[in-house]
Amino acid sequence: MPGEAVIIMRKFVSILGISLLAVLAVPSVAYAADDDYPPTPPTTASLSGSTAMAECEADTPWIDYSVTLTDPSNVSTGHTAVLFMTDGTNSTEIPLGELQNNHLEGRVLWPGASVGADGRGNGWPGWAFENGQWVKTSGNFAWTRGSITAEIRVNPQLTVALSYPPSTPQCLTDPAGVAAVTSGSLPATGMSSMVLPLGVAGGAIVVVGLVVLLARRRSRA
Predict the structure, then answer these.
(1) Is residue 198 classed as helix, strand or coil in its secondary structure?
(2) What total number of domains does the chain contain?
(3) Mean pLDDT score of the chain, rounded to an integer?
(4) Helix (H, G, I), strand (E, B) or coil at 18
(5) H or E element at residue 7
(6) Residues 142 and 69 in one domain
(7) In a domain, 200, yes or no
(8) Which of 182, 92, 205, 199 is nearest to 143 (CA)?
(9) Is 111 left (phi over 0), alpha (psi -120 to 50) or beta?
(10) Domain that holds residue 6
(11) Most buried of 6, 79, 124, 134, CB within 10 angstroms?
């Protein structure tokens, strides 16, 4: 009997050992299964909400910009912002600056524009001052006055609606005296100053003619 008891005890210990090994092995299998799942892909960086808008101030065309980088996974490879402009043939890049805490805002001159010491515009795209007068030119970023595409670029990039601001009676974006002013009335030209006096004189002649005609009819009667 003692021999049988020893055999039974050995079997019990053996079974117990196998059970313990099985229990200890389960977490390893679970961990291995977890390792089989792919990592969560990073969130794509975005410039959503960033803007670039044209504005005229003191006869000067400006571009006001606000750049916000959303990058929760830190995948962006740079923090330098530029404004890219093209008409499909010509293109230019305007440096905006370095983002601080993923944000940057400010203003830059429209390409081809300049400001004098008095703070007012003294140069405009598509115009050149030659021999004492302003003349139109195909240079000096004249192409930016037409249909263009603009993008704020940081990596990522964002397309923004942007166009050259028109001249108004309050703010000129062309040289004074040659500007095509946008208003509710017809544009003033050199011809208009001549037409008004001629119209008045013509009306006076018609009135005098009618008076003479009536006087003659009365005298005959």
Answers:
(1) helix
(2) 2
(3) 79
(4) helix
(5) helix 2-35
(6) yes
(7) no
(8) 92
(9) beta
(10) 1-37
(11) 124
